[in-house]
Amino acid sequence: MSKVRAEAAAGAPGILLRYLQEQNRPYSAQDMFGNLQREHGLGKAVRTRALEQLAQQGKIKEKVYGKQKIYFANQDQFAMVSDADLQGLDAKIVALTAKVQSLQQGCRHMEAEMQKEIQELKKECAGYRERLKNIKAATNHVTPEEKERVYSERQKYCKEWRKRKRMATELSDAILEGYPKSKKQFFEEVGIETDEDYNVKLPDP
To answer: Which Pfam families does the annotation name (predicted)?
Structure first.
């Protein structure tokens, strides 16, 4: 027997005993082999001898069902649980189960809301894609020449607007020099309407 195998055989009883105590449920030898083989590499012969040794020492219990042996931790080592403790555990289980169901319901509701929002966003994106497609396919785009023409006309009309406003201001100021009433009264009597009356502002050049 190699040194590695000898070490595995020596440590097998402790590994199996600790596993059965932690899990505290029945296991067949094959089940334990599947659960512990990858981590500890216990062979069939080593595992069988270790389980039989633990059973003989009374550290675990062994039950035979047909051709299969079942092993579980000796329950005498565990503290007795009273009916009150069991009822308390049952109450905790009920409370935790209700909490889990509530969380699951909340998750389902959130998932439904998220799916609804996702669908709305997809619909909105589809609308934008269609709009972009139509814009790209349109033949009536504004050409640079047309844009320049519109800008020039705007400049022309703003210049004329500024010129006429200055002329009107100079003329009204000349009249007001000999007018006995206020500028506001003069405008009201003559019927002059200003840009300010309509909250209109001359655009910047």
So the answer is: LZ3wCH (PF18517), WHD_TBPIP (PF07106)
